[in-house]
Amino acid sequence: MSEAIERLVADVVVVGTGVAGMTAALGAAPLAVHLVTKTDLESGSSLWAQGGVAVALGHEDSPELHAADTVAAGAGLVDPEVADIVTRDGVLAIRRLIEIGAEFDRGVRGELAFGREAAHSRRRILHAGGDATGAELVRTLALRVRAAAGLTIFDRSFAEQLVVEQGRIAGVLVRHPDGRRRLHVAPRVVLATGGLGQLYRYTTNPREATGDGLLLAAAAGARLVDVEFVQFHPTALAVARDPLPLLTEALRGEGSVLVDEGGERFVAAEHPDGELAPRDVVARSIWRHLADGHRAFLDTRQAIGERFPERFPQVFAACREAGIDPRREPLPVVPAAHFMMGGVAVDDSGGASLPGLWACGEVSSTGAHGANRLASNSLLEALVFGARVAAELRSTPAPAVSADASLPLPPAADDWRGGGELHREVRDLAWASLGLVRDAYGLSGALARLATLWRELPAGASETRSLVAAALLVGAAARHREESRGAHFRSDFPAPREAWRFRQFLTASVDADGVVPHFETPAAPLADGAPPPAASPEVPR
User: How many CB atoms lie within 10 A of CB 399?
Assistant: First the structure.
């Protein structure tokens, strides 16, 4: 007996309610917008962003300088034109936020207060409430979203499948809180579902960051790019919590240092910028130190000391909850999964390869972050590309779609929420083999096990299914890229190779038997004349 599916009609469906999703939904007015989130409106990774938002509004700064820093941090893979867009349009985006009520920290004369973070050549990091920048942006946008005409919020609702009709988007199949599945019929869908940080045992990402958008796009046939590049934040508080509390990079920007159990600084001996070296360098330095049997600590006592509760209230509260006083003792740290540089491949308007599909925020890959995201650029990119997607939605005519409710539907899951032994196994496997340091042996073994797990998954869309798919895609892309670059480090290919200095695009075949990536061979000859790597599927079925 077939399942009865109710149809809900909209002009646009936005899946995800972080900074990018809410910006896109607000900007799409006066179109009829359905805003779908599997949590509450005020949730997601954006809410957790401590470090701040980078913007070239200081007297000695410029978008050109900010773009140059962005390109330099990205290990050769940043698209310079996109870096220009983000840093230039970002100035306007922050000014608009301030106009609608966002409250950033200011100096004694009322001027905006700028902080410094790794790989930035200027003090350009804006904060709100010390270390609650993401929460302030979410608060500001959510107030507008709740009051917006023509915008309907569907919370606690899980997007199970993109509906494709005659080669273009026709809607989204969504499971609602009452357990019923409904078809949101729309010719335009925006994915703003965030990243995949929960793929790893140690992460700073919230519970809901399970890579759902990556699987939605891949299963619908959209191109993905650079999914091997996952950034690990160097300093998560090493305590018994999941996710781990983030120790914002602004702590190191203020002069805090990394030391071992003997009080000796160890990162400074490996890189001239010490604690302010690029994130991948600092994270791997800590990882190696821990692997060698040492401990790692962030010592904030001299740099911040008694100012800690006022300057970093969220971090201070997390430390005190763990029984640690950062004014009196150093903080134990471990690297943790933090941000996905790759994702759904989009153009400079956020458009994906599948007609009718857009993506913005962490689920997308614009080319702004390259192989190693510059600190505090993610919120800025979310604001800029959320607005660019909205502008495109307003200006692009949409064809009529039917999204026949009698079309074949995937089986319904008993429960879409992840958890259980299989969920934990995937996270442990990813941490061990798809993490900060990778090699062909570990990647191949992980991919073989993940292929088996995929076939053993219970029927129906779920967060665990999303995690397994994300792991298969990340692992395959990491095995295919035989070099080390930015956040992707192969111990068996420990140096960057000019022949691999390109963005790695792929599509995937997704069915009950597996998730099989198909890599695109670069079209242009490579700089050193070496032959490009062959395009091939990478995951055993």
Answer: 12
Domain ranges of the chain: 231-337, 420-519
List the one residue out of 1, 4, 31, 7 whose CA is nearest residue 397. 31
How many CB atoms lie under 10 A from the CB of residue 307?
13
Exactly one of 116, 181, 188, 279 is catalytic; name it. Answer: 279
What's the pLDDT at 390?
98
Note if the bond before 243 is cis, omega within 30 degrees. yes
For residue range 226-236, list pLDDT tens digits in order. 999 999 999 99
Cβ atoms 343, 362 nearer than 8 A: yes
Q: Which of 405, 467, 485, 364 minimizes the C-alpha distance to 7?
A: 405
pTM over 0.90: yes
Report the topology of domain 231-337.
Flavocytochrome C3; Chain A, domain 1 (3.90.700)
Cβ neighbour number for residue 306 with a 10 Å cutoff: 9
Tokens matching residue 367: 């080319």
β pairing state of 6-9 and 181-185:
parallel
Amino acid (one-letter) located at 76: G
Q: How far apart are CA 215 and CA 211, in angstroms?
A: 7
Give how far the C-alpha of residue 245 lies from the chain's centroid of Cα atoms, to the nearest Å.
Answer: 17
DSSP 531: P
Three-state secondary-structure class, residue 20 = helix
Neighbours of 462 (CB within 10 A): 24
pLDDT one-digit tens code per residue, 338-351? 999 999 999 999 99
Residue 238 and residue 114: Cα distance in Å, rounded?
A: 28
Q: Looking at the DSSP assignment, which residues form a beta bridge with residue 106?
A: 112
How many residues does this entry show for the chain? 541
Min mean pLDDT across 3-7, 49-53, 179-183, 297-301 is at 49-53
Helix axis angle for 420-433 and 440-456, nearest 10°, is 160
CA distance 420 to 378: 31
Using CA atoms of 494, 500, 502, 503 in order, give the dihedral in degrees to the nearest 10. -60
Question: 490 and 483 in contact (C-beta within 8 Å)?
Answer: yes
Q: Sheet containing 12-15: which strands, arranged edge to edge? A: 151-154, 33-36, 12-15, 188-191, 357-359
> How much is the CA Rg of the chain, to the nearest whole Å?
22
| Cis amide linkage into residue 531, ω under 30° from 0 | no
- Residues 418 and 463 sit within 8 Å (Cβ to Cβ): yes
Interatomic CA distance for residues 71 and 80, integer angstroms: 6
Backbone angles phi, psi at 112, to 5 degrees: -60, 135
Whether 373 is a known active-site residue: answer no
What is the CATH class of 420-519? mainly alpha
Q: How far apart are CA 63 and CA 69, in angstroms?
A: 10
Antiparallel, parallel or unpaired: β 12-15 and 33-36: parallel
**Count of C-beta atoms within a 10 Å radius of residue 408:** 6
Distance CA 6, CA 180 (A): 9
